[in-house]
Write a structure and sequence with these properties.
Distance between the termini: 64 Å
Number of strands: 11
Largest sheet: 7 strands, mixed
Mean pLDDT: 79
Number of helices: 11
Shape: rod-shaped
Oligomer: single chain
Helix content: 40-55%
Low-confidence stretches: 9-13, 15-20, 354-402
Strand content: 15-25%
Length: 471
């Protein structure tokens, strides 16, 4: 019965081709009329309904158009290919001038309803209205597609992040008994094929993994799906030059600022300027960092920690400047501070010039020096300078042996007052010098602690980013 129908269609086509007119002797017209005669595009093209239609698909990534981290959307441009056998589109090439394949409109034949599950928007894909049909019934539907899909983007490793986005192809309606999916090539060939990929953008294509799976929704009907994992990696050079290097330079300048003398006000001004400059830098780069509602990139944490380190550095500078600031009412340095800071700390910090910080190693203890000043001052002020003899002896004056007159007593009192003032000024200078020495030692200690913290933080981040980049 089937052969009789085919013979009837072939006779009808020959009659059309042998007629006079513009379609006379047009082989493709005769073939098109032969294929469309009695064709039902709404029916799955198999003679036995129990037979499964195998659809072979293939995917090649042409370009990565955009990666929207905020909306978790990936836009790619892919070359999609699919093949299947249509048992109703078969002919003998000898009857049609050895024509073995022909292009016919897609709207005139049956096409499988294979879609991408992750579709979130209709891309601007070009319309390809034709498919190639071979004389054995093999239909080849090749077309480019702009794919706008949902993807779970992890930006924690930015700008050294690697993204894995999936494209799942499956029949939306037909079960696995009607339409099954397979690969046109082997998974290894699909994985390493980068022939058509444009490798000049921000993202680099690593590989494409493919996996076939059969799943069921209601445990009765099973569906076939083919999932492609598109693995891409961001090129970090642009972000390294424009984000990381300026931040590193500002942190280096903050470390260099510790070499300014702590008793000068220039260090405070310098560090305040650095802090303001870093704040402006963060405002500029805020638009460059990717923003999501589910996480923060590590580079954002890095910038916040750098800002905190600058604030800590400024606070340390303010405390040291306040400590070494010269004031007349500044109390003497406690003994435990002298032993801990001026004697033990220089040994632990390996300070070469210990005499600069440890008065016990110099010409004598400032404490004994100050005690001598107190004793001399007490002698001068005792009983109005202890009469004339002690005053004369203390001042180095040799006066004639006679009773002191009121004028001489007044002169001696004024001289003793001047002596007490000078001694008190020297004592305040010695106290300020001791506090300055304490400040220098503490400044060296805090600088080294700060330097160790910055180095440890930088090495940790550098190691993590290096591992992520070459993973």
């Amino acid at each position: 019965m089937t052969n009789r129908k085919e013979s009837t269609a072939l006779v009808l086509v020959r009659k059309i081709g042998n007629g006079t007119g513009r379609f006379s002797n047009a082989t493709l017209v005769r073939l098109s009329e032969y294929l469309s005669a009695g064709y039902k595009k709404g029916v799955r093209p198999v003679r036995d309904w129990r037979q499964t239609t195998m659809v072979a698909i293939d995917l090649m990534v042409y370009s990565i158009l955009s990666v929207d981290e905020k909306n978790q959307v990936l836009t790619t441009y892919v070359w999609y290919r699919q093949q299947w056998v249509d048992e109703f589109l078969v002919w003998n090439p000898e009857d049609f001038d050895d024509v073995k394949q022909v292009s016919i409109p897609t709207t005139n034949i049956w096409v499988p309803d294979i879609l991408i599950n992750e579709f979130v928007d209709v891309g601007k894909s070009p319309d390809i209205p034709y498919v190639y049909v071979g004389h054995t019934g093999l239909v080849r539907n090749y077309k480019p597609i702009q794919v706008v899909t949902a993807c779970s983007l992890n930006i924690y490793n930015f700008p050294f992040d690697v993204q894995n986005c999936s494209l799942t192809f499956q029949s939306w309606l037909h079960i696995i008994n009607d339409i099954n999916i397979t690969l046109m090539r082997t998974p290894e060939e699909v994985k390493v094929d980068k022939r058509v990929f444009m490798n000049q953008g921000e993202w680099e294509l690593l590989h494409i993994l493919s996996k076939y799976k059969s799943f069921s929704i209601d445990e009765n009907d099973h569906y076939a799906e083919m999932k492609f994992h598109v693995v891409i990696r961001r090129r970090p050079l642009f972000y390294t030059v424009n984000l990381l290097l300026p931040s590193i330079f500002l942190m280096l300048m903050d470390i260099v600022g510790f070499y300014l003398p702590p008793d000068s006000g220039e260090r405070v001004s310098f560090k305040i300027t650095l802090l303001l400059g870093y704040s402006v830098f963060l405002i500029i780069v805020s638009d460059t960092l990717p923003a999501t509602a589910i996480g923060t990139p590590l580079i954002g944490v890095y910038f916040v920690v750098c800002m905190a380190l600058l604030v800590i550095s400024l606070t340390e500078t303010v405390l040291i400047v306040r400590l070494v600031h010269k004031q007349d009412l500044q109390p003497p340095v406690p003994d435990w501070v002298k032993r801990l800071v001026l004697e033990k700390a220089p040994l632990l910090l390996c300070i070469r010039d210990k005499q600069k910080f440890c008065p016990a190693l110099s010409r004598g203890s400032d404490l004994s020096h100050c005690t001598d000043h107190h004793l001399n001052t007490s002698r001068c002020s005792h009983r109005n300078c202890d009469g004339g003899k002690d005053s004369e002896r203390g001042l180095g004056l040799v006066l004639p042996a006679r009773d002191s007159t009121p004028v001489m007593d007044s002169i001696l009192l004024e001289v003793c007052s001047i002596r007490r003032f000078l001694d008190r000024r020297d004592e305040c200078r010695d106290i300020a010098k001791e506090w300055l020495q304490v400040g220098y030692v503490l400044d060296v200690l805090l600088f080294r602690v700060y330097l160790v913290a910055v180095l440890a933080y930088s090495i940790t981040l550098g190691t993590l980013w290096s591992v992520w980049q070459y993973a």
